[in-house]
Design a protein that fits this description.
single chain, about 230 residues, 7 helices, about 85% helix
């Protein structure tokens, strides 16, 4: 019974590893496409927000790639600490860039031209990103992977940023509110800093559920041998 249960748990773990790899691969592919389109459209429209959005997508690729690399390792849970640090740095980089871009836009009263491509792209991201985030978070929690959960939060932050840029582009086009996306960007930066701090501190709990279970099994084995 114990052997069968252990085999079943191992099979489930492998399924979750594959699921996370697929989710992360989809996230990387989508964000690479998003980055190219956003940076191009932002350059054409002289939109700092869109260009920043595209660069954010490259940071999302970095975070997802770190998790993808981790789950190609023989024992992914052993790489939690380093991967969490990479994700934290990605959050801080995102916060820094969005803050600088937003402040520059406010101080320089940057006028943004209407961008249909930008509006469509950010609207699609607002719909797609939450699904990717939810799927990775569920798999990560079941697996006990702090990095997968942290990366899902990164994707969720990208959703908020997408919404902020979308609101900024739409209100600018409709009402000429050039400052709207810059203000929203500062709010997103605050979220990113918070998530970055949590991910950085996560190394203190980098011992994932899987490692804790391994330790419990080791303790049980030692106890059985001692009384054997």
């Amino acid at each position: 019974m114990t052997t069968t249960r252990a085999r079943r748990e191992d099979d489930r773990t492998q399924v979750l590893h594959r699921r996370i790899r697929w989710i992360v691969t989809a996230t990387i592919a989508y964000n690479l496409l998003e980055a190219v389109i956003a940076i191009t459209a932002g350059t054409v429209a002289s939109s700092a927000a869109l260009i920043g959005f595209g660069l954010d997508s490259t940071i999302e690729v970095l975070s997802a790639a770190a998790v993808a690399w981790q789950f190609t390792r023989r024992e992914p849970e052993r790489w939690e600490r380093g991967t969490l640090r990479v994700i934290a740095v990605a959050f801080f980089a995102l916060a820094a860039y969005v803050t600088v871009t937003s402040v520059r836009a406010l101080v320089g009263r940057v006028e943004v031209e209407h961008s249909t491509i930008g509006i469509v792209l950010t609207a699609v991201s607002v719909v797609v990103m939450p699904f990717l985030s939810l799927a990775e978070r569920r798999a990560g929690r079941e697996l006990g992977s702090a990095t997968a959960v942290a990366d899902s939060q990164q994707t969720l932050i990208c959703t908020y940023l997408s919404a902020a840029v979308l609101i900024g582009l739409v209100t600018n086009s409709l009402f000429g509110w050039w400052w709207a996306d810059a203000i929203a960007g500062l709010v997103i930066a605050a979220f990113a800093i918070r998530e970055g701090v949590e991910a950085w501190r996560g190394d203190a709990c980098a011992t994932s559920v899987g490692m804790l279970l391994d330790d419990e099994h080791d303790d049980q084995d030692e106890h059985q041998h001692a009384h054997g």
